[in-house]
Amino acid sequence: xxxxxxxxxxxxxxxxxxxxxxxxxWSYEGAAAxxxxxxxxxxxxxxxxxxxxxxxxxxxxxxxxxxxxxxxxYAGFSAQGQEVRALQNRISWVLKARxxxxxxxxxxxxxxxxxxxxxxxxxRNARP
Length: 128
What we know:
By secondary structure, the chain is mainly β. Helix content is about 15%, strand content about 50%. The chain is built from 2 helices and 6 strands.
């Protein structure tokens, strides 16, 4: 993520991946569609970089298939190294072996929505 290299990032994903993203689009079908979104995100960052961290990770794995859920934090940093923003999402991955490599075949990100204001809650433990 720090390098904003779409080629490297896309190695995580199976060609037939389905992504349910939190932002803007209901779903992305296939790696080519997801790559367009990733490239758009990376190019929108300009000189900023993003540090991604995972907390509360839970993994279930069997030969050839695995699932992961976590809380992911995306922190944006200025070219000078100052954190300028951060948000959190819930993330789930289903990974399947293709050859000897596990790749994401399904990704689902989400954020809870406040009952009163119907706004996404983008910080864990934040109250609307």
